[in-house]
Amino acid sequence: MCWQIESHLETRTWFAGGDHPTSADFLMGFTLEIMHDVVPQYVGPKVIEYLKRIQERPAYKRVRISLPARYLCQLTTHVVFFLFDFEY
Fold first, then answer.
1. Which pTM value belongs to this model?
2. According to a count of CB atoms within 10 Å of the terminal CB, is the N or C end of the chain lower?
3. Residue-wise DSSP of the chain
4. Contact 64, 72 (CB under 8 A)
């Protein structure tokens, strides 16, 4: 398990510590999603809660629905939609 990440998320909702996601959350969220898919044994409960928060964001849902499964790795191209809930 990534104990440093788990420890960091013990007292924070988002990585930068504010009440809303920032670019740090986009970077970590994408990375942790891949980690969760590839090596789930290293992902702890706080990371899973964190990923659920990200996945509940309306913009995240729109991007997920708009991309076929084979293109989900291209989520990085949609960073502004994920973070700032812009319409497209």
1. 0.72
2. C
3. --HHHHHHHHS-SSTTSSSS--HHHHHHHHHHHHHHHH-GGG--HHHHHHHHHHHTSHHHHHHHHHS-GGGGGGGGGGHHHHHH----
4. yes
Q: Which bin fits 85, alpha (ψ -120 to 50), beta or left (φ > 0)?
A: left
pLDDT of residue 80: 42
- In single-letter form, the type of residue at position 85 comes to D
CA–CA gap between residue 16 and residue 70 (Å, rounded): 31
Q: Are 45 and 27 in contact (CB under 8 A)?
A: no
Q: Where are the domains of the chain?
A: 3-8+21-84
